[in-house]
Write a structure and sequence with these properties.
alpha+beta, 3-stranded antiparallel sheet, 1 helix, 6 strands, 48% strand
Length: 86
């Protein structure tokens, strides 16, 4: 179950075949990496996440409610440090 304190994010972007599209997800399902916004849009039949990569030049804007998001980022950074050989 998603922690309600992590907030929500809405991304508005231009999709070639549909025009402007708006998606709202929990903050933990959206990230910016390698000049793309990554948004979890579902799961496949095997339970794997399906992620949409949206190039930054197609994104109109992203709005996030971030009351406790910094705590989540800190936790994710700590977990990454534990897993990666620094």
């Amino acid at each position: 179950m998603v922690d309600p304190e992590l907030g929500r994010a809405t991304i508005v972007y231009d999709k070639l075949d549909e025009g402007q599209v708006e998606i709202t997800v929990d903050n933990e399902y959206i990230a910016y990496f390698d000049d793309h916004w990554l948004v979890k849009v579902g799961e496949d039949d095997d339970g794997n996440d399906v992620v949409r990569r949206i190039p930054r030049d197609r994104v109109q804007h992203v709005e996030r409610s971030v009351e406790k998001f910094q705590d989540k980022l800190d936790m994710m950074a700590d977990e990454a440090k534990e897993r990666l050989p620094f």
